Hints:
It is a single chain. It contains eight helices and seven strands. It has 254 residues and is an alpha/beta fold.
Amino acid sequence: MGQAPSHxxxxxRVEDPWDGKTPRGLALIAHGRLGGTFDQPPVRLLAEYMxxxxxxxxxxxxxxxxxxxxxxxxxxxxxxxxxxxxxDDYRRILRESMNNFASEFPxxxxxxxxxxxxxxxxxxxxxxxxxxxxxxxxxAHYILISYPVDLLPLIAFFKTGSYFRSVEALVxxxxxxxxxxxxxxxxxDVAGVLTVSAQHDTFVGYGAWTWVLGxxxxxxxxxxxxxxxxxxDWNGKAHxxxxxxxxxxxxxxx
Length: 254
């Protein structure tokens, strides 16, 4: 197993509202592992909601080694398994998408921004910060679905603590040692952070960490939801994700 290449071509899907109106902003959604793709139900249903109801440009992509995306997947490269290349891919796609949006719609002000992920994709979303260089965008909303609390040590090994702290820093405004240098130690403003978890996906570690996360919510931006009778794959329950997101946005946006 060699070192993962720093840049690979990823199969990417860009969807604008079907009514032809100018998108109100951007939503990025990363999928999970172990056979996950940008077509798995938690990703697909959220993408359709963001496109059709929230009127956003939606960006999804297949991770390295999945579908038509280049590079090795997590089974073929230990570096990819640990997650750093996937975080880099999320950040690159975000920067490129923000740049394209600002170029195509230069008159837009206060464009909405959603950084979303399911399972391992939620980890990568939580490690991503929107660059300051695109003032047309409002502070980001984060939607983290089935954040793999109890499985994270198997995914990240010694990086587990850093991944947890990346999300904790979103809600408390500081505390992540791996915040990219461009931010000069200051967490960017956040419009809201929503975690949506499945009942059968919540074990001892989940309860402990979500309690810790709640105690660090000094920015008052955190909402945490558990959906009854749902499992990690959200089989037959993926529509509940959209319902919870819609309720959350109705509450915080009025």
